[in-house]
Amino acid sequence: MYAADMDEATAKQTAKHILADGLKAKAVTLDVTDLEAVKDAIATVAEAEGGLDVLVNNAGWDQLEPFVRSEPATWQKVIAINYLGVIHTTHSALPGMLERGSGRIVNVGSDAGRVGSKGEAVYSGAKGAVIAFSKTVAREVARDGVGVNVVCPGPTETPLVMEQVADNERLLKALERSIPLGRMGRPEEVAHAVAFLASEEAGFITGQTLSVSGGLTMS
Q1: Residue 107, domain CATH
Q2: What distance in Å separates the CA atoms of residue 130 and residue 110, rounded to the nearest whole number?
Q3: Are 187 and 194 in contact (CB under 8 A)?
Q4: Which of 69, 82, 85, 203 is the most exposed place for a label (fewest CB within 10 A)?
Q5: What is the pLDDT of residue 218?
Q6: CA–CA separation, 32 and 84 (whole Å)
Q7: Is residue 22 over pLDDT 80?
Q8: Which residues participate in catalysis according to the annotation?
């Protein structure tokens, strides 16, 4: 298993957590917005491991703000990380999976991409694109033994989200009230859904979008 992050320390910390669970893991420094770097990284991993079995695209970034106040530089960054990053990694990983006749791709979207989210217009658009992209690729590669699915978290206690609401107790409470289960999600709850869709138990599931949102989205 390889943990990739553009921040080397974070990649190593993720690998450390995986090792603590008794699994093998290595850290890889990678910027998913750099296509050539992605190609090189996936080729290196595939060569070292004899192929790539599972690809999980969970890189993400956003900036909460009204769309009319947002700037083109922010749009480009949001789209590059949240959507183009998925295109880069998928395009680089698929040829090997198709050649082997097996593979699982799990893309982390967002409920913002399904129903919209105030203050996240471009992010919502990028995540909606990930959902549509994943369904299309799933149709194209299903008969070649490759499954592609999407996990859409709702409001979740990630460092980025908690940093953005740290000084806004009112917003935090409003988020919690909007969720039928009455609380925000925990990162590990999203991880469990990803692990299932990456497993053999989900071998007959492809082209699907699973919300992990405490009931916020029911469709």
Answers
A1: 3.40.50.720
A2: 9
A3: no
A4: 69
A5: 83
A6: 8
A7: yes
A8: 123
Tell me: the pLDDT tens digits for 87-114? 999 999 999 999 999 999 999 999 999 9
Range of the domain at 151: 53-212
Number of domains in the chain: 1
Question: With a threshold of 0.85, does the pTM exceed it?
Answer: yes
- Please indicate, yes or no, if residue 92 is contained in any of the structural domains: yes
- DSSP collapsed to 3 states, the chain: CEEEECCHHHHHHHHHHHHHCCCCCEEEECCCCCHHHHHHHHHHHHHHHCCCCEEEECCCCCCCCCHHHCCHHHHHHHHHHHHHHHHHHHHHHHHHHHHHCCEEEEEECCCHHHHCCCCCHHHHHHHHHHHHHHHHHHHHHHHHCEEEEEEEECCECCHHHHHHHCCCHHHHHHHHHHCCCCCCECHHHHHHHHHHHHCHHHCCCCCCEEEECCCCCCC
d(CA 111, CA 127): 8
Question: 165 pLDDT exceeds 70?
Answer: no
Residue 173 forms part of a structural domain: yes
The mean per-residue pLDDT over the stretch 18-35 comes to: 91
**Residue at 44 is within a domain:** no
Q: Does residue 17 form part of some domain?
A: no
Residues 191-210: pLDDT tens digits? 999 999 999 999 999 999 99
Are 5 and 13 in contact by the 8 Å Cβ rule? The answer is no
